[in-house]
Amino acid sequence: AARAGADFVFAVGCLGSNLEDVPFTAVDLITHTAGLTAFLTGGCVMEGITVTDPEDREIPICGVGTNFGYIGRVTLDPNTGLVEVTLIRDYDRVDEAILDQAKKLEK
User: Fold this and answer.
1) Which of 39, 40, 54, 75 is 20 to 30 A from 28, comparing alpha carbons?
2) What is the dihedral of CA 48, 72, 11, 14, to 10 degrees?
3) Which pTM does this prediction carry?
């Protein structure tokens, strides 16, 4: 996508961060993929972490946890290219349909 002219390329996945997940972690994906802007992943909680990609760029990762535990937020400035990924931890609204799905996943 970056080679085709995209200004920003965001990856979204559900990759773990534990040693038993290697070589299929968010870190592994970034170290082998050029052109990403940021990566949001489920399956782990990570914030404030960057990983060097094959082009020696620091790519931020945000791990949003499991079962809809957190919301990942990407903030970008198209003028400067500054990208920040953070977790929203104190979201207190509840969508009953999503809550039902999360309960099914816990079983």
Assistant:
1) 75
2) 100
3) 0.75
